[in-house]
Amino acid sequence: MTAIDTEGDTHTYERIGDEMKIGNAELTVLKYFFWKGKLSGIGIKTKGYSNWAALKDVVFEKFGKGYQRNRFIEDYLWGSFSKGKTVISLEYNEFSKVGTLFLYSIEVEKQKAEYKKQQAKEGAASGF
To answer: Exposed e or buried b for every residue in 98-126, given b needs 16+ CB within 10 A?
Structure first.
C-alpha cells in the first residue's frame, strides 16, 4: 500500500495493483482509511452516470436497496452506528457526476469517538 495522506492518527492509502473496477463500474478512486493501525473505512468513487449506475447495481445486489431519505435524490444508507458492524453510504452527485461509496467500521468509529472524548477530558483537566 502507498500512503497518500496522513491527518493525525488517520492514514489514507491506495494499493498499487488494485483492479479499479467493481462489476461493470470503472472506479476513479479506491482508498483505504486506517486509524491507529485499524482499518476504519474504504472510499470508492466513480465518474459519470453509467459507472454510478453499474456500481449501484452491484451494491444493491450485494446489500439490498438500503434506506433512501429522499426518493428524488440518489443517496442510500445501510446500517447505523448503534448496531451492526458496518455503515455503508452510496450517493450520486448530479452536478459533479461523481458517485461515492463509503464503508465505515462501526467498531473503529466508536473507538475514535471514545478516544476523542478521552482527549477532551484530559485536555479540560490539564488545560484550565
So the answer is: bbbbbbbbbebbeebeeeeeeeeeeeeee
Residue 90, judged by CB atoms within 10 A of its CB (0-12, 13-18, 19+), counts as buried
Q: Which residue has the cell 485536555?
A: 123
47, three cell numbers: 465518474
Query: How far, CA to CA in Å, does 42 sit from each of 7, 20, 29, 95, 104?
Result: 16, 13, 10, 23, 7
Model confidence pLDDT, tens digit, residues 14-50: 999 999 999 999 999 999 999 999 999 999 999 999 9
Separation between Cα atoms, residue 2 and residue 62, nearest integer Å: 28
- pTM of structure: 0.84
Judge contact between 25 and 46, C-beta under 8 A.
yes
